[in-house]
Amino acid sequence: MTARFDCIVAGSHLRYDGVRQRPQHLLSRLAHAVPVLVVEEPFLAARAGEHREARDGLEVLRPLRPSFEAERVDARTIAEVEAWVGRRRPLLWLYSPMLSALADAFPGAPLVYDCMDELAAFAFAPPEMKARERELVRRADVIFTGGRSLYEARRALGEKVKLYPSGVEFEHFARAARIAPHPLYARLARPVYGYFGVIDERLDLDVLRALGAADAQTVMIGPVVKVDPAVLPRLPNVHFTGAVSYDDLPSLLAGFDVALLPFARNASTANISPTKTPEYLAGGKPVVSTPIADVVAAWGDVVTVAATPSAFVRACAEVAAHPDAARLERGALRARDQAWDAIVARMWRDLERLSEAPG
User: Fold this and answer.
1) 57, 242, 289, 306: which one has the fewest Cβ atoms less than 10 Å from its Cβ?
2) Are residues 195 and 242 in the same domain?
3) Residue whose C-alpha is closest to residue 133's, from 155, 117, 152
């Protein structure tokens, strides 16, 4: 059977050089099989242009524009993508409905929607996002969902909807159990409660304030986006590091006594499935989470769940003082089963089945 595609054009709302998340893990691995071009949303710049660079064995295209409105893909971007595709047969792989013009430019090409978040529920989402997502899920040949809640919301669309929760580079994070903690911790008293990832509207500020009143140090590692830094609790024992390198995460994780999932319960978190959960567990750290549905469903037996700020602080103190070695081992074994390489291998089989369908 001849494949219907021999390259991948991926449209992403996330910056490829930002926090390493699901798109980077998946697309860099798919690039082992076929050429991959990642098209980002426009980036504000003084003059229009197209910035291209090689990363992780693929290419990243960042349109530079002095301004842009609702349309994230314009004629200049389409021309650049068409030149890259040339005579190849592309598969379109989208992370945002706002980039559907990429699929419009290649009618008949197979279309994948990798739904990693409920983007319409996020802060500052365009008002047309919901309608565009409805059209995208109708058009898509395959819909990969990054968590149980996202899958349940779309499973009525039939067999084209697949559940693929995010995975972990297990050996990368397992190093946290074997290496010295990052020098950051030399000046901090124990215990240390830690979080890494994007710091945005999904975090529960009441939980962070309660942690600030606890007899512990709380370290929040990652960039602050979509929230005014002034609203974050500025307390002597709550520390914000800003963005860090993915390569530094194991040594930073090594310094945690407790790993945190301090998410608020609101529209933007109703369907999240945090990638950091298996990363924390791979590092052998006890995890305390608010009652996020996908965390409870997938990891509830190895993660401590606390529903209120005061209960969250008590849970952190308890697991820091009395870590359950058997539970930590179960969590690490479960995380090992969520390897990105295995996930991509299963996804690739789904993509190959597209070749068996009519073009």
Assistant:
1) 242
2) yes
3) 117
